[in-house]
Amino acid sequence: MPTDDPRKDSALRRLVDRVPDVVFRFSLTPEPHFEYISNATTRLLGYTPEEFYAEPELGLSTVHPDDRARLTEMVQTGVTEPALIRYLRKDGSLAWAEVKLNPLYRDDDETEPIGVDGVVREVTGPVRPGGESVTHAFGGIELHLVERRVTVDGKPVHLTPAEFRLLTVLMEKPGQVFSRDELMQRLWRSSHTGDGHTCEAHISNLRKKIEPDPRHPTRIVTVRGGGYQLSV
């Protein structure tokens, strides 16, 4: 992201441009414009960073019409919770992404954002070809991808974005054993995933929310020497 030191700025941008997620900074003053957007936007949407700099309105016009009001509200109100947003690629196809915004304020006024930092992470398979909302249901757990809701034995459960993505991976293929590295790569969509302790911490937190007895898990079980699976 931009900094006061052009050398640091250049080095940081080179680093960010290697990340698979779209990273951007959008300023609302004096006129709406992109201060920075990473090269990943070309892979995700087919538009180059230069096109976003030349046409700032692409930031909204590439969003599906039904989701534009939601994204605009997130920017204007400073919402920081991730949201599932649909985008329209340059070739007309649909892309789903998890959008996380961080509002920027003037030093003397934190009532109205003057811009946002953001990360757009592509997600896969949230709808069937006919447009029907996808719900994974297994063993008393229901996971609604589009609404980002989870119920366990009929009761709503609040999951963090990371826990939600982790449960989604496991519920897509019940019974399949996922190694710690596989889960972390699916979770962060990157080969830079940290160590196994990070995975264990996420699994532990998820078990506390979905297991009848987290000390003796029956839903997410450990496979010795393999990893974890959603038990069938």
Short description:
The protein contains 8 helices and 11 strands. It is of the alpha+beta class and 232 residues long. It has 2 domains: 6-123, Beta-Lactamase (2-Layer Sandwich); 135-230, Arc Repressor Mutant, subunit A (Orthogonal Bundle).
List keywords for this structure.
elongated; about 230 residues; single chain; Beta-Lactamase; five-stranded antiparallel sheet; 11 strands; Arc Repressor Mutant, subunit A
Q: Give the class-level CATH name of the largest domain.
A: Alpha Beta
What is the CA-based Rg, rounded?
20 Å
Q: Name the poorly predicted regions.
A: 1-7
Please bin the fraction of helical residues. 25-40%
Shape verdict: elongated
Q: Order of strands in the sheet with the most strands?
A: 2-1-5-4-3
- Total helices: the number is 8
Please give the alpha-carbon distance between the first and last residues: 45 Å
Classify the beta-strand content into a percent band.
Answer: 25-35%
| CATH structural fold name of the largest domain | Beta-Lactamase
Average of per-residue pLDDT values: 83
The tally of beta strands, per DSSP, is: 11
Number of domains: 2
In CATH terms, the superfamily of the largest domain is PAS domain
Output the helix-strand order: HEEHHHHEEEEEEEHHHEE
CATH architecture of the largest domain: 2-Layer Sandwich
Kindly name the structural category. Answer: alpha+beta
**What's the main sheet like?**
5 strands, antiparallel
